[in-house]
Amino acid sequence: MNQKEVSAWTYHYSNKSYSWNYSRAFCQKYYTDLVAIQNKNEIAYLNETVPYYSSYYWIGIRKIDNKWTWVGTKKTLTKEAENWADNEPNNKKNNQDCVEIYIKSPSAPGKWNDEPCWKKKRALCYRASCQDMSCSKQGECIETIGNYTCSCYPGFYGPECEYAVQCPALKSPEQGSMSCFHSAKAFQHQSSCSFSCEEGFALVGPEVVQCTASGVWTAPTPVCKALQCQDLPTSNKVRVNCSHPFGDFRYQSTCSFTCDEGSFLVGASVLQCLDTGNWDAPFPECQ
After folding, report:
1. What does the pLDDT average to over 260-287?
2. Band of the pLDDT at 4, cuts 50, 70, 90?
3. Lowest mean pLDDT: which of 14-18, 135-139, 215-219, 259-263?
């Protein structure tokens, strides 16, 4: 086994020749995988530094569902990334499903050719500079020669995707409470807050809101509204005097009843709206 190093990212190749499948197993066992070429600069570097070998080298492309695919990322090969030799791929005998690279080929240096996967060639491997914690696990780690770059997932930013988009801070609703889960800092992307109300109050709005990648909550903060009791019946004989701390005939409203002179009250002289949304006694009458 030999290697060529470029800072954090190293290239390696086998001294022996193997089939494509065995070459990939070799690379995965000792390094990361067969080379996944990102750009023309990488091809030029490999062609310059890796030694010539008459049977050439396998790289990490093969045909999957009739599409040329980078096996490490399972992404389809794009036209911009292709580097086929002239008149390739030609799929002779309909069995050329793997790809070799012509290292130091006199006629087509660095170009690609499709070949039957059983043929024996050297394995061209790489050891990734991307590690488990690269990009803070909040972005896609993209290998470059000698280093890597981070393509941050929505809601994250920074060289290592280490920062999260902030949402405005929230407060508990009046007569209610709020409980929040924060992955790191408070009120940032992926934070979620749940709301509940005290007895006698009902939640108006969503029970849970989340901080989105655009820095806004999925909904406005809900409010706690006092439960409504039944309106009092009207009567010419009964006089009513009420206090409403949370709105007309709502939770904790209290009403007192009196009768005109010559009549007497049948029932409770004071009613209160309970936390169930019901009055604590039937409506009284004047007789």
Report:
1. 93
2. very low
3. 259-263
What's the pLDDT tens digit per position in 175-195? Answer: 999 999 998 899 999 999 999
Cα separation, 72 vs 35, in Å, equals 9
List helix spans (H) across the chain. 20-30, 40-49
Local structure of 272: helix, strand or coil: strand
CATH number, span 165-226:
2.10.70.10
Note whether 46 and 36 are within 8 A (CB): no
- 15/262: higher pLDDT: 15
Cite the residue boundaries of each domain of the chain with CATH code 3.10.100.10: 2-127
CATH no., domain 134-163: 2.10.25.10
- Domain 2-127: give its CATH superfamily: Mannose-Binding Protein A, subunit A (3.10.100.10)
User: What residues contact 116, with CB distance under 8 A and at least 6 apart?
Assistant: 93, 95, 96, 97, 98
Q: What is the distance between the alpha carbons of residues 180 and 36, in angstroms, rounded to a whole number?
A: 42
- Does pTM surpass 0.85? no
3-state secondary structure at position 189 = coil
| Token reading at 31 | 């390094």
Q: Classify residue 14 by burial, with Cβ atoms within 10 Å: 0-12, 13-18, 19+.
A: buried
Architecture of domain 238-286: Ribbon (2.10)
Q: Are 121 and 55 in contact (CB under 8 A)?
A: yes
Angstrom distances, CA of residue 242 to CA of 29, 43, 229, 266: 81, 85, 13, 18
Please report, as a single letter, which amino acid is at residue 109: P
The contacts of residue 49 (CB under 8 Å, 6+ apart) are 4, 11
